[in-house]
Amino acid sequence: MKAIAQFLGRVVRDPESKKVGETQLTTLSLAVNRKSKGGENQASFFDLEAWGQQGDYITQYAKKGDVVYCDAEIKIDSYQDKEGKDRKATKYLIKPYSFGFVPAGAPKNGIAQQTSESTEDSPF
After folding, report:
1. What pTM does this model have?
2. What gap in Å lies between CA 51 and CA 38, rounded to an integer?
């Protein structure tokens, strides 16, 4: 079994790509809304990775501020730091064919807006 997460959030900065061996690695940061105990909206930030052709697509079309959704496999890497301490890092690998954009006129939180003005304080 695999651990899977679903993300719906806003791109924090333009995606970045680099070559790792013969394959391209693209990194993407998302701000995702969550409710605090007091009921206020707060943002959580997640760094995601995409490899190969999917990374090329994301680099070409996703830009800072876009609302996107995707499924990602959760991967936990174990390593030792410079002092020899055991560490773990959580990575989110975007699953193939699961990346998409939310249309610009789509309602927020699945609820149609009655007016064009919004008083919400959120990253969305």
Report:
1. 0.74
2. 39
- Residue 55, number of CB atoms within 10 A of its CB: 23
Whether residue 20 is predicted with pLDDT greater than 80 in this model: the reply is yes
- What are 67-117's pLDDT values in tens digits? 999 999 999 999 999 999 999 999 999 998 888 888 666 665 544 444 444
**Cβ contact 26:13 at 8 Å:** no
The per-residue DSSP string of the chain comes to ---EEEEEEEE-S--EEEEETTEEEEEEEEEEEEE-TTS-EEEEEEEEEEEHHHHHHHHHH--TT-EEEEEEEEEEEEEE-TTS-EEEEEEEEEPTT--EE--TTPPBTTB--SSS-----S--
